[in-house]
Design brief:
The chain is an all-beta fold. The protein contains no helices and 12 strands. The strands form 3 sheets. It has a 5-stranded antiparallel beta sheet with strand order 4-5-6-7-8, with no helix packed on it. Strands 9-10-11-12 form a 4-stranded mixed beta sheet, with no helix packed on it. A 3-stranded mixed beta sheet has the order 1-2-3, with no helix packed on it. The protein is extended and about 70 Å long. The model has no long low-confidence stretch (mean pLDDT 90).
Length: 177
């Protein structure tokens, strides 16, 4: 369906008025699906491109957003998670970007992690967990140990081999007996 002068396109569903430039709607399980299939024989891939082309680039510009929304128990729409891409530095030759991960916690969006590039010419960027100081714990599971590494953000403690570190650094060594 095409919607009047706004140029919106709606596909599927009984709605006659789409709410976005491209609005896909269905009640069929596992649908709608957007599939980008590349059948070429070279090494080039299919692509989804987020491109902000304002002609007025600024450090800190938001340049792409993926939102994960759904109903809550009150049948109201809720934003459960989102991924934001933005610029850190736009100066030619020193460009740097970042990707931020937000997850709903107690009804509000909290920044859980940031992946950011460097603009100073160094080779490595940063991966930052709990960048908003929201007491988000961090855990790395091993093959048989669910707390191979555990960071207790609220108490500012790190455990190796324990889920309840009781010091700034708590290493629990298993008895191989």
């Amino acid at each position: 369906r095409l919607s009047g002068d706004d140029g919106y396109v709606g596909i599927g569903g009984a709605d006659t008025t789409p709410d976005a430039m491209l609005h896909l709607k269905t009640s069929v399980s596992s649908q709608p699906e957007i599939r980008l299939e590349n059948t070429n024989t070279d090494s080039q891939e299919a692509c989804i491109r987020f491109m902000k082309n304002s002609g007025d680039a600024t450090d800190g510009d938001d340049i792409g957003l993926i939102r994960f929304e759904g109903d809550n128990s009150a049948d109201a729409n809720h934003l459960y998670a989102y991924i934001m891409g933005d610029t850190l530095r736009v100066a030619d030759g020193t460009e740097a970007g970042q990707l931020r991960l937000y997850i709903s916690q107690a009804g509000s969006s909290v920044q859980y992690a940031t992946y950011q590039g460097k603009s100073d010419g160094s080779d490595a960027g940063d991966i930052i967990f709990n960048p908003a100081n929201a007491n988000i714990d961090f855990r790395i599971d091993g093959d048989t140990n669910d707390n191979l590494v555990r960071v207790d953000a609220a108490n500012e403690r790190m455990g190796i081999g324990t889920g309840t570190p009781n010091n700034k650094l708590h290493v629990e060594i298993e008895d191989s007996g």
